[in-house]
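Contributing new records

If you add data, match the layout below exactly. Sequence lines come first and carry their own label; structure lines follow with theirs. Keep one chain per record. Anything else will be rejected by the validation script.
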Amino acid sequence: MAILGKLVKVGIDITAKLQSAEDNPSTAQENQLKELLKQAKNTAFGKYHGFEEILKSADVVSAYRKEVPIFNYEQMHEQWWSRQERFEDITWPGRPDFFARSSGTTGKTSKRIPITDEFMSSMRSVGTSLINSLHEFDFPETLFESEVLMLSSSANLDINEQGFKEGEISGINVSNFPNWYDVFYRPGKEIAAINDWDERVNAIAEQAPEWNIGAIAGIPSWVLLMLQRVMERHQLNNIHEIWPNLQVFASGGVAYETYREDFEKICKTPITILDTYLASEGFIAYTCRPDTMAMKLALSHGYFFEFIPFDSRGVSDTGDLLSDPMVLGIDEVEVGQEYVLILSSCAGAWRYAIGDVIRFESLSPPQIKITGRTKFFLNVVGSQLSEEKMDKAILELAEANATTINEYMVAAVKNAESEYIHQWVLVSDVKSEDLASELDELLKSSNKNYAVARSKALKGISVKVISKEQYTAFLAQTNKKGGQTKTPKVMKEEKMKELLEIIG
């Protein structure tokens, strides 16, 4: 294994050095769009929107924007994707092999995203680029001698009435791993196929001493619970007592910062945190350099990106896209500016608004951070609270009270006098009786719009603290426990009332 680790590390270093420099971002993206249009020009969508003629245009990007409208999920599904189970060549050649169910952070039901062969190849290609970027980090050879633990959703996929396989994207990925992945992939397909979250984690805890884990990938909340379960099962002081070569955590799905302190508590030695932007719609970006959590956009892997300014030029006060928003290309974006991400892909998504808001941290290479969801924008009474601003306030609140607050939920609700307040639910063991006033002051000091709202229509805030056990019980009761599940931080009023009723 030592020789294998050395060979793998050398191979990664050589591959990275031999790879030719990418085209400039604008050229790379134009090439991606042309390739997507060529492949889909004979589909129903391609014929309806004149892909053949768009490809003949002197300015393909401009022609594409003119001929194809922006779609949200409901529009794309109702008009196009819903037909793909019965007919071929709808938005992409042939029919998709799988449908990915989103983890349902927005909307009443999970989305169903088509997954094509080309899409699966693109995700593997981005994964390979991530691995090749590891030479930048100068990891020791022991990392490449070890195994990777991927905490996915269940790999036991459902079969729908039309015979298509369905599941969350991480489960689909795991179920399609080639057999040779068994050499390094843990917990293995057998354990990954266990549907019940607790049973799956218990099986991981039982097998843990037999593995040499060097890297872990998954959503921070569930990875943390899994690691704590392993430590509890084997009476450990830290996770490195059982996995001394653990050096990397590839985080994704939610912001990592509210979990950082708890991860540091269970590690004997520091681990490198890589952020990944892996959604049902694609493997969109990944950390490629040390000393940053910014992620490099996958510009040459089957995706074409557009960007709508997340301000009055592109969205309404409630975070909804304007009917005719400003749309920018990769060569027109600015560092520090937030944008709504629009995606076209080899899964047959066309000018599709994923619902994520990103900010550019650099342009060479183009690196981004996810700052929130368009629907996690709390602005019922003009408070203009983005997910990033709320995360920052929660981190400061936790630090002031010498504790950690991993998860929280908030909603604008009406009190007995029919006046709006913000109802917060914090998952923590914090005991302070002044949390509401402390949080209120933190938000006022960091956000002038919130301060103005508090002087007018927003009449107050209420804070309820629940334990981690209450939170996971709530997720279990609402069938959202484990794997890639994410809970919306900003809730509708009726959903918050349901949560308060369940937790008591």
